[in-house]
Every structure is written in structure tokens, then in C-alpha cells.
Design a protein that fits this description.
Cofactor: [4Fe-4S] cluster; FMN
Pfam families: Oxidored_FMN
Protein name: NADH:flavin oxidoreductase
Organism: Sphingobium rhizovicinum
Order of helices and strands: EEEHEHEHHEHHHEHEHEHHEHH
Number of strands: 10
Keywords: Flavoprotein, FMN, Iron, Iron-sulfur, Metal-binding, Oxidoreductase
Length: 374
């Protein structure tokens, strides 16, 4: 079933979820990256959202909890030329592609990345609580020391960096941009009360903590075009705490998202570990459903499509490919979400969409797939 939202016209409702790949030495996507995305477009994925792509800021990417050291960037002649070729390949295959604009923020290990001398960007100078962190002790040792909070001028520089990179995305032919506002990274660290304890205009209540994200969206709108699609990914869970919540109630969720709608977000991407998990007590509706109900905007659901285990569990427990598309279809028919994002299943098998459509067997789950660009 096609999907249309403004200038975004998708041949079906399947979205390739962003997944960190680390095959871009020096920030330049390797030759393998082009084939990796093109093969998914050739196999009928409606929309590809790329791995996180570093914005034009010295501390945007470095080593973080998922490894790192070879994340792509969206600035500089060589990187932009390579992205232009990647976009052209996806378009030639009939697909659409959007970069996920990324700044690691507090998650970046200080002293790593393409500009190791640049200080990591932390709204309040803190990484967040450590008692529930699902990360290694070695990583925690490197990030737990408090740093200087961001100054107002530094926050302005970050907003400008996102805007420059969004303009670059439009210039090389991408079909929109997606903002990574989830999982404890920079944008999310402003949204979450445990990493944003500021008492100026960038902090306060849940609506006030959304100001940074709101100003990013406004700046991107000014740097691109009124009809250039903007997707905003957010989550409740963080790398610091898988049980964390930005919003404890639907009312708080609405207070956080309403300013983003006004600023110009077109589609919300509600990142959950399991897409069917109830977002709030008293109802079985997932997070994407609540977002759609409260904002009226199209939503993307994600989490566990095609697999028997959530992401974190799949690293430690036996995991198999499974067909849970009946659940997807039921939730979509109920109006919970408009698009469904598929991550690991598409990493395991580039032809997952066409094979599921045609009733063919898909490739099995294997951990070594994370180290390849098949």
C-alpha cells in the first residue's frame, strides 16, 4: 500500500530503520555502503533511513557504546560526493533515502572521533545516572566524569551545525532528513530530565526541555524548504537506562511533542524495543499510536519486526526470524501507525520485504551479520 505525505511518495509502508554500520573510514562512506543501500531499494523497501550520519560539528561522532570510529559525516566535498552517488543509486532502483542526522552528545567517549580534542557536548555536563546503564564498566569509566555544561553560544553552534548538514542533504538529493532525537544522544539529552538539569531557557519542565529540538527543526526548515520532509525519532528508553521515560503520561508526551509539530516536524519515528509494547498503563496502544493520536501526524513504529527477540536480548539469547506481520497489519488497520520500520531483519536479508511478500524463506539471524555489508 503506497504512502504519501507532501513530497514524500512511498511505494509501500516498509521503512529501513537506521542502524549503525561503521564502514565509513574518515567519515567517507565506503564503496560497500552504496551497494548496501541500493540492494535494499532494489528489493522494494519503500524508504531507507540511513545509519546515523555525523552533522557538521567537531564532536558529532566518536567512539560510543555501539563501537564506532568509522561513522559517516554529511559535510566536506568528498563525503558529499559519495552521498550524491549513493542517493542516485537508490533513486535508480526506485527507492527513496533520507539521512539520519546524528550527534552523539553525552554518549561520545571524550577524546575520540575525527576531532579528538573537541569536548563532548553535554547540556548539563553530565552523562546521566549509571546504576541502570547497559554498558561496559570500561565505557562508563571514560564518560562518567562531569564536564562543563554547554554555553548558550555553544548551543547556537550545534543548531547551526544541524542546519548546515540538512542543507547539504537537500543539495545532494536526499528526499528529506531524519533527526536522531532518541536513545540518550544529544537531542535526547536535552529532552531527558536526568541529563538536562539546566535552569535557563534550555531547561525546566518537559515542554521547556524540548526547546533545543524545536530550534533545530526551525533552523532546518529555514535552511531547506517548507516542503522538505523532516522526520523526528525519539524514544523513552536510553542507553543509560532501558526503563527510562521522558513522558510518564500521555499529557506529558503531548506537552513534549506539540511544540515540535508547530516547529515543522512532518513524521514522528517512535523508537521502541518491541513495537507492540503498551506505552502507558491502562491501554494496549504502543508509543507510535499515542503519538499519532496526540499530534495527528503520521508515525513510524519500530521494534522487533521479523525477529523473536528485541535488540539487546538478541546479542545474548537465541534469536530466530519470525513472521509477525499479521500484528503489524492489525495495528496499522487500527490506525496506530502509518509506516513500519524494519532493522535487523533487513540487515540479515536485503530481500526481506520481497521474500515476505512472496512467502519465501528469509536468511536466518546471525550475529556475524553486524560485521558485514551484505
Amino acid at each position: 500500500m503506497p504512502f504519501t505525505m507532501g513530497s514524500l511518495r512511498l511505494r509501500n509502508r516498509f521503512v529501513m530503520a537506521p542502524m549503525t554500520r561503521n564502514f565509513s573510514p574518515g567519515g567517507i562512506p565506503s564503496d560497500g555502503v552504496a551497494g548496501y543501500y541500493r540492494r535494499r531499494a532494489e528489493a522494494d523497501v519503500g524508504l531507507i533511513i540511513t545509519e546515523g550520519v555525523g552533522v557538521d560539528h567537531p564532536a558529532a561522532v566518536g567512539r560510543e557504546t555501539m563501537g564506532g570510529g568509522a561513522s559517516p559525516v554529511l559535510h566536506g566535498d568528498e563525503a558529499l560526493a559519495r552521498w550524491r552517488d549513493i542517493v542516485a543509486g537508490v533513486h535508480a532502483a526506485g527507492g527513496l533515502i533520507i539521512p539520519q542526522l546524528w550527534h552523539q552528545g553525552v554518549i561520545r567517549v571524550p577524546g575520540t572521533g575525527y576531532h579528538p580534542d573537541a569536548p563532548s557536548a553535554r547540556p548539563s555536563g553530565i552523562w546521566g545516572p549509571t546504576d541502570k546503564a547497559m554498558v561496559s564498566p570500561d565505557y562508563l569509566e571514560q564518560v562518567r566524569t562531569p564536564t562543563a555544561p554547554l554555553t548558550d553560544s555553544e548551543i547556537g553552534d550545534l543548531i547551526a551545525a544541524f542546519a548546515r548538514s540538512a542543507a547539504n542533504a537537500k543539495a545532494v538529493g536526499f528526499d528529506g532528513v531524519a533527526l536522531h532525537g532518541a536513545h540518550g544522544y544529544l537531542i535526547d539529552s536535552f529532552l531527558w530530565r536526568h541529563t538536562n538539569v539546566r535552569d535557563d531557557r534550555w531547561g525546566g519542565g518537559i515542554a521547556e526541555r524540548a526547546r533545543f529540538a524545536v530550534e533545530l527543526v526551525r533552523a532546518i526548515r529555514a535552511a531547506t524548504a517548507p516542503d522538505f520532509p523532516v522526520i523526528f525519532r525519539f524514544s523513552q528508553w536510553k542507553l543509560q537506562d532501558y526503563e527510562a521515560r521522558n513522558a510518564e503520561t500521555p499529557a506529558e508526551l503531548e506537552a513534549m511533542l506539540a511544540p515540535l509539530v508547530e516547529a515543522g516536524v512532518d513524521i514522528f519515528d517512535a523508537s521502541t524495543r518491541i513495537f507492540t509494547a503498551p506505552a502507558f498503563e491502562g491501554a494496549d496502544m504502543g508509543l507510535a499510536g499515542w503519538v499519532r493520536k496526540l499530534t495527528g501526524k503520521p508515525t513510524i513504529a519500530v521494534g522487533g519486526v521479523g525477529l523473536s527477540k528485541d535488540l539487546q536480548s538478541s546479542f545474548a539469547q537465541p534469536t530466530v526470524m519470525t513472521d509477525n506481520l499479521a500484528l503489524v497489519a492489525d495495528r496499522m488497520a487500527r490506525g496506530e501507525f502509518d509506516l513500519i520500520a524494519v532493522g535487523r531483519a533487513l540487515l540479515m536479508d536485503a530481500q526481506w520485504v520481497t521474500k515476505m511478500r512472496d512467502g519465501e524463506a528469509v536468511n536466518p539471524f546471525r550475529l556475524d551479520a553486524y560485521a558485514t555489508l551484505d
